[in-house]
Amino acid sequence: MPPKAKAPSFGSQDYWDQRFTTNxxxxxxxxxxxxxxxxxxxxxxxxxxxAPEILHIGCGSSLLSQHLKTHVRxxxxxHNVDYSRVVIEAEELREMMSMNGNVVACTRWSAVDLxxxxxxxxxxxxxxxxxxxxxxxxDAISCAEDVLCSLPYAVSSKQRESTDRMVEVxxxxxxxxxxxxxxxxxxxxxxxxxxxxxxxxxSERYTFLEGEPTKTEEDGTGNTGIPDPRLLWTVVEDPHxxxxx
Length: 245
Ligand SMILES: C[S@@+](CC[C@H](N)C(=O)[O-])C[C@H]1O[C@@H](n2cnc3c(N)ncnc32)[C@H](O)[C@@H]1O
Fold this sequence. Notes:
Elements: H1 13-22, H2 37-46, E1 54-57, H3 64-67, E2 78-82, H4 85-98, E3 108-111, H5 117-123, E4 129-135, H6 137-142, E5 147-151, H7 163-168, E6 172-176, H8 178-189, E7 190-199, E8 234-235, E9 241-243
Parallel strand pairs: 1-2, 1-4, 2-3, 4-7
Antiparallel strand pairs: 5-6, 7-9, 8-9
The chain binds S-adenosylmethionine (SAM).
């Protein structure tokens, strides 16, 4: 019997590194870059920010990274991130060559693992971005394994009041769904009122944002020890669009 075809490992960095090494041409998942124009224009028009910073997560080799420049005054307002250094270096070089080395005309590029908050805040300033663009990146992230997080988790939705509480808490690890963890991490680098615009295969992606948030401890963590993403993001209007209060 022939061996079963294995489903691609969309949640594995090795898969993406290998794919971007062998497929070097630009490729857009789900839609052409222009398809997001109406929601991007609406989001940028609804926020009170004269020079909004856009965080394009899991940019891959999408042409959207360049198209986003049409929505801002300065190319540097667009920050493209992906955990595959292969694609970040290739796309940064492609842009630099097309702009004849004019750095000011180029967007920013960083290799960032969205499931590792130290990686994210190593490249992205806290509370900086007004709009997050996610074209099928949540789909890939949803395929990743749960992430083992040590408690007390270093990221909380409120300032911890004293270090005393931290030594009282039992040290342990819990598995956290990758998309929930990314939602918590994205709240670190977005401004209050920012929009997370997500185009996904399925409207079921964000069911973890439904319902009432769990009761929180004084440091903002829920009973799991990880901030409840429902305290940070609210789904609005279209199921593909989320809103940061
Ligand atoms: C389905 S592709 C979408 C690419 C691009 N946004 C598009 O529309 O064509 C998913 C992308 O997410 C990236 N990705 C997956 N997990 C990631 C993670 N933990 N941190 C950063 N990027 C990730 C992959 O490298 C890949 O480029």
